[in-house]
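Lab channel / #folding
Pinned by the channel admin:
"Please post every new chain as: sequence first, then the structure tokens as a reply. Keep commentary short and put observations after the output so the thread stays searchable."

First post following the new format, from NK:
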Amino acid sequence: MVEFAGWDMPVEYTGVVDEHIAVRTRAGLFDVSHMGEIEIAGADALRAVQHITSNDASRLSINQAHYSALTTAAGTFVDDVLTYRLADDHFMLVVNASNIIKDFNWITEHIAGAGDAMAVNSSSRYALMALQGPAARDVLQPLTGVDLGALKYYWFTTGEIASVRGTISRTGYTGEDGFEVFVPPGSAERVWDAILSAGRSAGVIPAGLAARDTLRLEAAMRLYGNDIDDTTTVLEADLGWIVGWKKEDFIGAEALRRQKSDGVARKLIGFEVLDRAIARHGHDAYVNVEKAGIVTSGTQTPHLKKAIGMAYLRADSTAPGTEFEIDIRGRRVRAQVVPMPFYRRPTS
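Reply from TO:
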């Protein structure tokens, strides 16, 4: 257990490798109640959300979600978020735990001129659990009357889970199929125990933050504070697909459109280490003996059994196959740019 953003967080239960492989081959259950929820409601809620987020929320149907960002005027990240459309005039943003207060204050300030829209920090109303892996649907289905097979990826619905009223979302942060379940905190233990009990015969186990990190890295999902922050733009992070380019305006739109036209000077890439070594966050990267960037995430992954990572490199050094060097405690090791994601789940 470690302290994180005011929470006692489980780093691991039975071990990172065991939990990682369980999610890839069966399913793992994560307690991610530390994530924050900020709701925006009112007649002008859509206008407010459009103004503060990069993606085009007007394209969301009720009960649909998408990945987006809160962006600064420079097109950099205040935070990355999931935007849920609860109703025509009601949205929920799921934000990172360490950013809840910062995000809420920033959102409140920047929707002040949007008209009839108000933000509420509703984080204390939700406990959040993520059941991830190929067995997730079969394990969760007996606990709910919701037809999970009919729930599309990045859609959500309400219903009972283990006789507890909540929200079921077909989303996750592991690269696997799975579901995230929002329930009242007072019922969290009951739902957690019910899911583990239902999944016992399928080999479902609890999984901690360490496995969550190795899983998301294999899936090339960015981590705020490592791969993205207020010094990196959405385009530098190679996330142009979360920008609603046809929107009239949003905070950071001008900077991002200019960067799209002119091109980026650096870009986030995926790499494999070619020598026997593991690159980590903060290690310097070199191209032709000149410093060219920095590693933002890196590990030896339990499933792929490779040393992989992400790094910002100069734009002229980001083509797949490009070799470069990483300085690991004074030793230069070879690495190669590879396409992302590193892992794609099998499709039936």
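NK: The chain has three domains: 2-33+126-218, 36-108, 265-348.
TO: also worth noting, The mean pLDDT is 97.
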